[in-house]
Amino acid sequence: MSTFADIAVALVALLHLYFLVLEMFLWDKPLGLRTFRHTPEYAASTRVLAANQGLYNGFLAAGLLWGLLGAGRAVEVFFLACVLVAGLYGAATASRKILWFQAAPAAVALTLVLVNGGLR
């Protein structure tokens, strides 16, 4: 069962690497415009803010990978909790879709990690 927890943590990390790419490099490109349903004008005026947001998503991914690569379950729990809180906040303030694409995967991974040894 610990393998499932590791896979779930890795998937959340990969999601956040994808968010990093979308927000830092593709925000004002066709894929970014379609994904976020922005106009080119809006994307141009918010590009720097999106890049900053993408950088933070990269930090979350790095923390999750750090946990997987040996820092331990406590690090995974911390970063998954951060992702979950960010996802809940984003769902409440920006878009309900964030609940399903960010918060739900983090909640599943966090549950699997806690069920499989928690903070050891």
Features:
120 residues; mainly alpha; 5 helices; elongated
Description:
This protein is mostly helical. It has one domain. 86% of the residues lie in helices and 0% in strands. The chain is built from five helices and no strands. The chain has helices at 2-25, 30-36, 40-71, 73-93, 97-115. Helix 1 packs antiparallel against helix 3. The model has no long low-confidence stretch (mean pLDDT 95).
How is the secondary structure organized here?
Layout (H helix, E strand, L loop, with lengths): L1 H24 L4 H7 L3 H32 L1 H21 L3 H19 L5
Q: How many E-type strands?
A: 0
Largest sheet, strands/sense/barrel: none
Number of helical segments with 4 or more residues: 5
Counting structural domains, the number is 1
Q: How much is the average pLDDT?
A: 95
Alpha-carbon Rg, integer: 15 Å
First-residue to last-residue Cα separation: 15 Å
The proportion of residues in beta strands is under 5%
What structural class do you assign from the helix and strand content? mainly alpha
Helix-strand topology string: HHHHH
Gross morphology: elongated
Low-confidence stretches: none
> What is the helix fraction of residues, given as a range?
over 70%
